[in-house]
Structure formats: C-alpha cells, structure tokens
Amino acid sequence: MNRISEVSFRAVSLTTASRFAEASALYREVFGYLDPAYGLNPRLLGALASNGGSVVGILDESDRLVAFAYGFCGTDRRGFYHYSQSAVVAAGQQGRGLGRMLKHAQREVALSHGMSRMRWTYDPAQIRNAHFNLDVLGARGRWFAPDMYGPGTDRVVIEWDLTRDEPAALDEAELTELVVPTDPKELRKAFEGLLGKGLVAVSCRRLPDGTDAYYFGPADHA
C-alpha cells in the first residue's frame, strides 16, 4: 500500500499565533538549530501572512503540523515573483508527497496575489532535491549563486512558471548532459559555464550505471 494513503494530510494557510509558534518550533527541530540567531520569529511569519507572503503548512489527521513553508514577494527588472525562502518536513514524514503539497499550496497563495513565477534555491549536489525541483515540479535552474550563505554554500536559483499545471515536455535532442562530478569545484565550474551560455537546468536523473546527470536546455524553450 502506498504510504501516503495510510494517513490523510491537508494543506492550509497558517493564520494564528499558535500555528506560527508551532511552525517556528518545527523549523528549529528539522534543521537542528540551537543558536537563536538561526531561529525563525513567529511574529515575522504573522507579518508575512498578513502582507502577501505565504505561510503554509500540512496538518495530519490529529491536526498536528508536520510540514511548513514560507515565502514573500520579490521583484526584479522582469516584474514581481514569489520567493519561497524555506520548506521543512518533520522527521519520519519524508517520502509522503508533503514537499509537493507545500509547493502547490505556496503556488496558490502566489497566484491569488497576481504572481505567475516562484523562485527558491537549492544545493546542486543534492540530487534528490534537484530531481524534485526540475522533473517533478517542472521548475528550471536559471542562475548560479556561488557561496550564497558563505564558503561552501553554492546554490542554484530555481524559477517555476506557476501558469503551467504540468511540467513542460522536453526535446531530448536539444539537451546537454552533465554527469554530476564528485568534486564541488568541478560542479560549480560546470554550472557557471552552462548557465553562462544561456542554458537552464531542466532535468536531473539517475543513469543506468548508478551515476547522476543534469540536463540543460535553451532558456527560451524552458
């Protein structure tokens, strides 16, 4: 039996002080943050929820918060977009589709405020996250941010077209393959080179020999 069918989950917008406090506690628990400097202020979540941001959660059958995400409005020369700052799923709840539920709950919030794009970042060495972002959701890796949070924290900036209900079809003939190198410096160099050519990351898959590969395609077709 599929595990997700064993428990009923529901996505909700968090709106109360008690839920904001619960979300902050879950955030610290999942990331293992003990230093208050890395905490998440419940009052900030309340301000975001009241001013166009997304503060969404997944509740289980006992009304317990088991996953949480938050984001806010961003802007650049192309206009406004929703920025998803963080998403967490409680230990023992991974693999139940909760990450996808969170992203789609944020999508609904962003669309309700007139935004058609969402952005977030991920570590390009985290292959599972890459596959989820690119293949499951259909988002695209458009920019590279070296040492985004300090040395050794390279990130890919993802952009998700919220007007699409399903990932766009890929033309395999147009794709450039990158077998994922084990050296982070080589991975950085490859991403900077390929994205610098105007390509975008469109897929990340496990190869038959057990290695992993990214695939890049033209930005205007992605």
From TrEMBL:
Record-linked PROSITE patterns: GNAT
Domain N-acetyltransferase span(s) in chain numbering: 7-165
GO molecular function, one term: acyltransferase activity, transferring groups other than amino-acyl groups
Record flagged with keyword Ion transport: no
InterPro entries per record: Acyl_CoA_acyltransferase, GNAT_dom, GNAT_N_AcTrfase_prd
This protein's UniProt keywords: Transferase
Name of protein: GNAT family N-acetyltransferase
Native source organism of the sequence: Kribbella soli
